[in-house]
Design goal:
Largest sheet: 6 strands, mixed
CATH superfamily: Phage tail protein-like
CATH class: Alpha Beta
Distance between the termini: 8 Å
Structural class: alpha+beta
Order of helices and strands: HEEEHEEE
CATH architecture: 2-Layer Sandwich
Shape: elongated
């Protein structure tokens, strides 16, 4: 049995793989620079237990997920990032349980970071973080159940 956060990360990865703009250029927890763009990476953030919403049988949590969009930099790199943001938003909000109705309670968009440029003049990459918070529930005695 795996932690429910892992189930959610796998489901989100599947939802953002195969989008029109980024296709299968999707990875998880990437620590190396992205070579092929446009692309997405998926990172797990904090996994909080909000105050006042737990009972004796279950624990409710709020898992932060960052979807990071990458495009080749040009004069309109923000336009390319906006296309990706639109697709990611539609993919994750079309089923707010992420295909896990017995685990996920809801998905909330949490805003997007400023677009930024990185790299040298030859390989400028535009990048933007798209933030979501996924509320889910697990057993009080087992984070995988």
């Amino acid at each position: 049995m795996t932690h429910r956060a892992e189930d959610i990360m796998v489901a989100v990865l599947a939802k953002v793989t195969g989008l029109v703009v980024t296709g299968t250029n999707v990875s998880r927890g990437r620590s190396q620079p992205v070579e092929t763009v446009p692309a997405l990476t998926l990172e797990q953030g904090e996994d909080l237990i909000p105050d006042g919403i737990n009972n004796l049988a279950v624990v409710d949590r709020a898992l932060s997920i960052r979807v990071i969009a990458y495009v080749k930099s040009n004069a309109q790199f923000d336009t390319a990032l906006n296309l990706i943001r639109e697709e990611v938003y539609a993919a994750l909000m079309s089923d707010r349980t992420q295909g896990l109705p017995n685990i996920v309670l809801d998905t909330y968009p949490m805003g997007d970071d400023d677009p930024e440029l990185s790299g040298d003049a030859e390989k400028n990459i535009g990048r933007q973080v798209i933030n979501f918070e996924i509320h889910y529930r697990h057993s009080l005695t087992n984070a995988g159940a």
